[in-house]
Amino acid sequence: MRKAFFQLHIAVFLAGFTGILGRLITLNEGLLVWYRLLITALTLWVLAYFRKHSEKVPLKDMLKLTGVGAIAALHWVTFYGSIKYSNVSVALVCFSGVGFFTAFLEPLVNRTRLRITELLFGVMVIAGIALIFHFDPHYKTGIIIGIVSAFFGSLFPVFSRQLVQRYTSETVTLYELSGGFLFLSLMLPFYLQWFPATHVIPTWSDFAWLLVLSWICTVLAFNLSMKALKRISAFTANLSYNLEPVYGIALAFIVYREDKLLTRSFYAGLAIILLAVFLQSYIVYHNHKKEK
């Protein structure tokens, strides 16, 4: 269990860089995610070829993996869309809403009892986001897109956890992200028609950052989180990922000085979210200690 928490925390730390990378890359959100998935899928297939280790996946499970990959693609597109329409800090705070949605969705999908404490902590996170939304209306569009991103983000580990119990994390990552690439490739022409891009080909600078985003923040982080999901619940994973805004916002403050653009309501909302994360983390740790 301790190793799983360590793997998950490293994945969360790496994910904290995705926000500032999303702002550094000048492509629109649809193209950004398409290139990210293209580089990632190609890398994973090359690694799978050299490892010479493959698992047979039935068509039924292949379709499930592709579907989860499509959810991941939608999550990423809306996440980067939230950054483009607001800023890194606001998008990352909205990402914390995954805990609220997971509190409902995980018991519904797994047919388990709804936990009141998880629901309450999820409500605290939503209250923090609502506080920012109420006092910072100029971030309205970015916040709405960010909440949609949180919904898709909550679905992803719930469905992935069922699959990683049957297949290795490498197999799950390979087929999910390949499926996400295929899905977005089909949707991208329509997306670009609705949301035209200023340029389609990445600049050399964009390409360099896309490699960092794909290899470090996706391939490595994805494999670590999939391995962790074999031992811990989807809610705990999502709750741990609430630390991603802490890392990402700190980086945004340092790199882009976004602290100068934010009001007191942002910090009040962030404080409520961090309190929810701290309290839930304490309860998870305390319960785990009692089970030993």
Percent of residues in helices:
over 70%
Which runs of at least 5 residues are low in confidence (pLDDT < 50)? none
Q: What does the main sheet amount to?
A: none
Percent of residues in β-strands: under 5%
- Order of secondary-structure elements: HHHHHHHHHHHHH
- Silhouette: globular
The end-to-end distance, rounded to whole angstroms, is 11 Å
* Strand count: 0
Count of helices? 13
Average pLDDT works out at 84
Structural class: mainly alpha
C-alpha-based Rg, rounded: 18 Å
What's the number of domains? 1
Explain the overall architecture.
The model has no long low-confidence stretch (mean pLDDT 84). This protein starts with a helix and ends with a helix. Helix content is 81%, strand content 0%. The chain has helices at 2-15, 18-24, 29-51, 59-85, 88-95, 98-110, 116-135, 140-164, 169-194, 204-228, 234-240, 244-256, 264-291. The longest helix has 28 residues, at 264-291. Helix 2 (18-24) packs antiparallel against helix 5 (88-95) and helix 5 (88-95) runs antiparallel to helix 12 (244-256). The protein has one domain (2-291). By secondary structure, the chain is mainly α. It contains 13 helices and no strands.
Features:
mainly alpha, 292 residues
In short:
The protein has 292 residues and is mainly alpha-helical. It is 81% helix and 0% strand.
List the helices and strands and how they pair.
Elements: H1 2-15, H2 18-24, H3 29-51, H4 59-85, H5 88-95, H6 98-110, H7 116-135, H8 140-164, H9 169-194, H10 204-228, H11 234-240, H12 244-256, H13 264-291
